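sorry to bug you again but im stuck and you know this stuff better than me. theres a chain ive been looking at and ive put its sequence and its fold in token form underneath. id like you to explain what the token line says about the fold, in plain words if possible. anything you notice is useful, everything is just below.
___
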Amino acid sequence: MTARPKVCSKCGQQVVVPDTLGGRIMMKRIEHNQSRSELASILAKSSAYIMTVETGKTDIRFGDLKKIASFLKTDLNFFIGE
């Protein structure tokens, strides 16, 4: 697993994003200037849930991943592909 640095457009800080499913979700969320709370609202989940998905502590349901892909206007294969 490699980590990619990414600059947060909201705070300007560099964030290390792991090359995992959760890391890809985080990277696209940051690229689209969305907060964890904004992403959580489309899933009717908490921002804490999004954080645990992004850090790999919780698995995500496929239906939720499809909603995230649609919301972030990103092909689903980006998240599940290698």
Observations:
- The chain has a mean pLDDT of 87.
- Helices lie at 21-31, 36-43, 47-54, 62-71, 76-80.
